[in-house]
Amino acid sequence: MGLYGYASLPKLDGAIAVSGSNGLASEVEIARDAHGIPHILAGNDGDAYFALGFVHAQDRLWQLDMDRRIASGTLAEVLGERALPIDKFMRTLGVMRNAERIYRNLSPDGRFVLDRYAAGINYYLSTRRTPLPIEYLLTRAPAPAQWTQADSVAWLTVLAWDLSGNMGMQIERMRLAQKLPLEQIHQLITTAPEDLTRMATTDYVPLYRHVSKLAAASADVLAAAPSQHVEGLGSNNWVVSGSRSESGSPILANDPHLGLSAPSLFYLAHLKSDRLSVVGGTVPGLPVVLIGRNDQIAWGFTNTGTSVEDLFIEQVNPARPDEYRTPGGWASFATRIETIKVKGQAPLRWSVRETRHGPVISDVSANAQDALGKSGQYVLALQWTALMPDDKTVEAGIGFNHANNWNAFLDAAAKFYAPQQNIVYADRGGNIGFIAPGRVPLRSPDNDLMTEAPAPGWDPRYDWNGFVPFADLPKAFNPPQGQVVTANNRIVAKDYPYFLTGEWALPYRYKRITALLDARQKHTADSFAAIQADIQSLSMDELLPLVTAQTGTLNDPDAVEALALLKKWDGEARADRSEALIADAWERALTRAIFEPRIGHPLFKEYWGQRNLHQALLNTLRDPAIGAVWCGKGSDATAAQPCAPQVAASLQAALADLKQRYGSDMSAWRWGEAHAAVAPHRPFHQVSWLARWFDVRVPVGGDMMTVNVGGNDFSNDETPYQTRMAAALRMVVDMAHPEAARFVLPVGESGNRFSGWYADMTRLWASGRYVTIPTDARSIEQCDCKRLRLTPSHG
């Protein structure tokens, strides 16, 4: 296996002649630095995009192929029957069909960029002299097909899906309505009290109990869908003006928080041509730098978390099951046949239905169909802003790369459709800005559900009425306070006239970043890096005084010892200490003790996996009336601490669990080991002996609410503290010294396990360090780089 693996490494120096009609206009040099980061030096934009496709294929071929299979619903061809649910879901959404329409509707310039990028990938595929990456050998997967322009558009749609999480929450609330009254469902919505916006004003519980079979079956739909943005996690970005920096120029920072993987979602690159000079985080499959800087500006993203998905309960005509109810009467479902190749089995064929709102996602699951019956009374359809054929988001990315001032940046942002994002901006002229572009559905004032839960599809009150005008989207330019901070927090005032979402992320990261910025008048790239590395847990600073005050008298020596540790703890979630582990374990045990009995185990576990219940826990402990509801029949609504028995018992339960996992010596427990960041390989992390070789693991501090985020999943009983979501890229740019911009990935540039660049940045990332990517000609000429020349051949 080792000989094959090393033989599969791509050619990195020398020359490759590029021939054919889709070749090069002039020579391109690809200079890879000590971390394998390529400088692509081309004579024109088209050749630069070609070369970017080429290096993406060289370094990330398996990732490209798997991502394309996710988007196109063809994973089962490689992974077999276990991949069928996700394939059926993606085919039902029609991601690839819509991507083909989007590509046809792009401008000539947009199509040109995708054409050249695809040509670069395909040239590598058709001319490579090395074996395919070892994943192809071990899975016996077919060689990758030619890359199409629609593959890039489809992958961009999947990235939008990953950041659009409200569909899952609507399904979970529909299921909670089978168990709880509306008041208790609202108690589980964990937005901070100061961020509460309009919530549902109608009691939807009776409706969902009327469609109980649909509610129960929808769990399978959620299980089939690719994972989406999990509540409580997100990203950070901030920018300060020159008046707030020691250099006198703006400084910008960004760290998007996403699911860890090996290789990473991002791939660092520098593209230089006659019209282009841009460096930062690209995404294999896309022809642009998504987060980064050019010679004049820098920019970075966080997720807004806007409700851009709506589920609709569609009523099926009992007399004619090929029809569904609309405000104007019965209408026919649009249908099409999909065929999926399945490894080791005959191809699967089935019919996909669509309504005026979108695809019928409840058809994805055989269990859902069985529960509803062949002529079931109701189905679930999805409307989503990313499933529209006029999407121009890829052109926005191209525009960002070329923009040289705020107005040009805004022109590009106007084409950014899905999903809505918070973008901070800085330029060398001393300006800073913020814009939240993206299509935001306009919802009627009569909409009394406000995206909390699926709406009746036959009632026009719940239909979209267009989108918020671009001119009215949140934005700022050179704000008087000299800074902008976003961390998935509420970004608009309560008098903002349009509805974005009722579920902002808890504001701990935003508050901590703001406090650290306010703590000094003048900042540097070093102080920004320190903020990105900050692991002060404001969430535990808020929770621990509540729980330690409700433990009563403890007789268990271990509980007494743990309580003493927590009372002295400064709240810094350090990897080399035990306090954060004890605190997290206590919160986990207490959350389960309070909420699981009333909700029931299966549904509680699913809901807990979708969103943390930290704010719900705080509210329950603070408000005796709420506490009495959730803490059992024996609780007294007039008691000051109705949940005190659960608080004390859960501490002991947490310590017993930690002993079983990590041994009886509390002084030897280390948060970093329990909370280790694990970047899993797809699909080898599912095979234990392969996972030990392909997965990347490193101890880290922080927690799911710290600035240096380490998102774990309390609902996972096997590894509840393991970091699954974290900074997928970090960037700091001082516009006075853009050549010294700092970047780092959680793993490495290469997706080939046999490369020295597979995980060479992991220790840097875990310790808050960075690499620089100087883009000036002298630095590139003098670097100790691997140099590959792509030369045009017209013979």
TrEMBL record:
One of its GO terms (biological process) is antibiotic biosynthetic process. Ca(2+) binds at D310. Binds 1 Ca(2+) ion per dimer. GO terms for molecular function: hydrolase activity, acting on carbon-nitrogen (but not peptide) bonds, in linear amides; metal ion binding. Keywords: Calcium, Hydrolase, Metal-binding, Zymogen. The active site is at S235. Gene3D superfamilies: 1.10.1400.10, 2.30.120.10, Glutamine Phosphoribosylpyrophosphate, subunit 1, domain 1 (3.60.20.10), Penicillin Amidohydrolase, domain 1 (1.10.439.10). Its cofactor is Ca(2+). It holds the Pfam family Penicil_amidase. InterPro entries: Ntn_hydrolases_N, Pen/GL7ACA/AHL_acylase, Penicillin_amidase_A-knob, Penicillin_amidase_dom1, Penicillin_amidase_N_B-knob, S45. It comes from the Bacteria. Belongs to the peptidase S45 family. This is Penicillin acylase family protein.
